[in-house]
Model the fold of this input.
Amino acid sequence: MKKKINLKSKVVEIVSLVALAILAVTYLVMMGDRLSPYMLQTLLNQTIITAVVSTGAVFIYTTGAFDISLGSAVAVSAISGAMVYNKTESLFLMFLTMIAVGLLIELIDSALAAFLNLPVFVTTIAMLSVLSALVKIMIASGGGAKIEVPRAVVKTLDSVGLKVLILVVFIGLCIFIYNYTALGRREKFLGGNPICAKLTGISVKKLSILAFLIAGVGVGLAAFLTVVRAPTITTSTASSIGMDVIIAIVFGGMPASGGARSKISAALVGSVSMVLLSQIMVILNFSAGISQCVKSILFLAVVTLSGLKGRKAMLTR
Amino acid sequence: MKLNKLAAVVLSAAMAGSLLLTGCGGSGNGGSGTEGGSKVDASDISDYGINQNVKIGVLASDLSTAEALSFRAYYEEYLGSQYDVDFIYSEQLGNAEEEISAIEQFIAQGCQGIISLSSFDRPGQIDLCESAGIYYGVAAGVLTDEEQKAYEDCEHYVGAVGPSLETEYQTGYDMAKYFIDKGDTSFLIFAGAAAFGTEMHIYRVAGMFEAMCEADASTSYNGATEKDDIITAIYGDLGVNADHFSSDTFTVSAVNGYNMDDAWFGEIAEKINTPGLQAVLAVGNGSDFFGSMAPEGVEVGSVDTYAEGYLNAMENGQLDYMAGKFSPSIAPIFVAVINAINGVPLRSDGSAFMIDQGYWIATNADEFKTFLDSSSATNPVYDKEILDQYISTPENVVSYSDFESFVSAYTFDDIQNLK
Done:
């Protein structure tokens, strides 16, 4: 009986990887002769922003919390950075501003939850509303419907090499923190059993704030990548990121409740899977509405499978 | 567990590795690098759209207004049935990033050309199409002069056909002049997206003020009486500030923006019922926002498109003046994109073209109905018979000057003469 459960547990655990493999093979077969370096570059461009934000967000999800304001946070960081560039003409200051604003937003988000003893989802809903309004105010303050960084300036940064470097370094850093430091182990402990974690003397507030701060770095990097990709920022820039991150992380095999089975790889696996799925549906000429339905059904299936495992298996000890 | 980690790393590395291979970029589909209609060898001309299927992606930031629906019907229902063309529409685009993603999707779907009805970041669109080797044209709009200068030498940027800012200015001027000539002196100006810095709306409003300044020398806006100064003043006010208007003859009130909330509609209701108001001068849709609320005797001028709903408004006295786009106005850029795909790009002295195209003016229901009938997807004014004259074949290579003359003759009467 135990063996049966273990087998099922293994199958469920690798379902996201199997899904990624199936999607990759399907995409390659469907593209056939049309597969070109350009198409692969397109996959990278469509994956990278979600992957970076999701990687940082894994720390939040591991503690059993979630943040739906990440998209708006990216937008505010991007606008702040663009405004600084337009004042100083310094790309370095633009980059630093984006990281700093990303950290600041996530610090406020987590500090509100920690010190007012509010559930995190309450503060992130409030932040979503505040940040969305802030995006409109900041753009209006520029005297138009958009804020732009000169295309010629960011064009020099729009290279595959730089994007991959940012992704690899950030993921590498997160893997190190997550798997080889006390912080990562405590995050997982907190998500798996918050009461027990608290009783062992772990500071829940401190851990939550640190998790949000790491996500804030991801927000800042994503803001930078967003401006490099599309230097014209409007009120709806990055608006879909919040939902994309949730779907990608869960689709990548992250338990919805966080805890010990959380993994950084879920962010990358989920982000790549979602982009491949979107591309396949585009090739099949599915409308956006049908694509949305297919994604929702798959999302539910993955969550159900994860739940199945969670209900029947013991935590790894 | 180790197996899972290994598999995750291998799969991710495989994807990342394949992505890294793309470092050198390069064009996927490759542009043919043709030199212009007159220099092309007739035997090299392809017949996409005629005997071979071609896919054209359409970038759209609006899929629901009367204008958007009529444009789509013309492309999909009329041109789609007359030529071997599949028009693939984007979802409703809301920002520059979505425009880029949509172009990437079009490329994945094998589109050979893209027509843009979305203007969040046109330079970004051109850059992407150029790098992908996809032909790109702008319909119902043009680039700014600076953008055109910067991108006109891009091989895959075909050109732009639409109202220039000068035409927008003239459109506003003509509308105001029409009502001034009728003796009206009290106006409500709907400045629309002038409040957001949208140039075409700012220029239309400036044209309206200019007509008033011409009619009465005491008239000024924020002290300005000349075109450029008025435009600067409107930019500075982020729309129209009625307190900055001064005249011994005319009175002006204003509604800005498109908030479309209760407060905004309340403001409209209040201002349109101002005693003595004679006409609404709208930079956009006047009949929907103002026509239904306008009291007896208040006339409404609108800049929009020829659509069934507005004919009803004109017949019911909710619309009195229409400067409207006609849906087949987006045909010339289709012709240009098809020619480029077939290896016969139409170049203006070797560069991408930018050709001005104005509106049709209707001031009564009969005129409106005539224009509306000519805008339908079943019997459009630019029909296959006309368009075929400007699509190059081995027997008939179209020159740029012929094409320019064709596009520039956009008035209703001019187009009748093309047949």
Remarks:
- Chain B touches chain A through 51 residues (CB under 8 Å).
- Confidence is low (pLDDT under 50) at residues 1-38 of chain B.
- Chain B has two domains: 42-164+327-358+380-416, 166-325.
